Amino acid sequence: MRSRILFILAALTFTIAAKAQVKIGGASPTPDANALLELESTTKGLILPRVALTNTTSFSPLSAHVQGMTVYNTATAGDVTPGIYVNDGTKWLRAGSSGSSNMNVTTITTTPYNLLATDAIIVSEVASASQLNLPTLTSGDAGRMIFVTNNNPGGTQVLVNASPTALPFGNTINTLRGRIFYWTGTKWLGCTL
User: Fold this and answer.
1) Other C-beta atoms within 10 Å of 26: how many?
2) Quick one: which of 25, 19, 18, 78 has its CA closest to 52?
3) How many folded domains does the chain comprise?
4) What is the domain range of residue 47?
5) Within a 10 A sphere around the Cβ of 179, how many other Cβ atoms?
6) Residues 104, 120: contact at Cβ < 8 Å?
């Protein structure tokens, strides 16, 4: 009996490890081919881990700085205030700028639109298919995130370009959907919401 349980556990572990992509929600169980994790819902959001940071230079409450770690800070302490922070491997950066606490929300109604390095949240309300161009950043901007949402209920898509860096995933956003774009220091990556 014990060997049978061990076999079942080993089979489950192998099955879980073999599945490299995960999709939560939505009508189709298949995630986007380029997404490690895809969340789909028209009525629910994503809650990041909520932690109390002490300042941008301290990894606490983590045990070390981890490049790409993303959290929602709940504390007002040192030089941090509540909001989304990304760790660049040596410090915390508030999402939306390279160290600034400003979360710039820009609603666009014309196309094409060239995103600025300081843009944080882009809401597209273009009546027809729109095109957004992500900014060209440097390695010092690693950890920058831009959230793009397609707020047009008319069914048109938003096309996001990252010239000269090619996006390693699909770059269209369907109506009433969103995507987070993350600058690694050398290229843009994304997560479909």
Assistant:
1) 13
2) 78
3) 1
4) 22-192
5) 24
6) yes
Q: What digits encode the pLDDT tens for the residues 87-143?
A: 888 888 877 544 444 456 788 888 888 888 878 888 888 877 888 899 888 888 888
Q: For residue 2, what is the enclosing H or E element? A: helix 2-18
63 inside domain:
yes
Is there a domain that residue 48 lies in? yes
Task: Kindly report whether the global pTM for this prediction surpasses the value 0.85.
Answer: no
Looking at beta carbons, which pairs linking 78-86 to residues 24 or more positions away fall under 8 Å?
78/53, 78/54, 79/55, 80/53, 80/54, 80/55, 80/56, 84/48, 84/145, 85/53, 85/56, 86/143, 86/144, 86/145, 86/182
Residue 17 lies in a domain: no
Residue linked to tokens 């508030």: 94
Beta bridge partners, 153, equal none
Kindly state the helix (H) or strand (E) to which residue 17 belongs, with its residue range.
Answer: helix 2-18
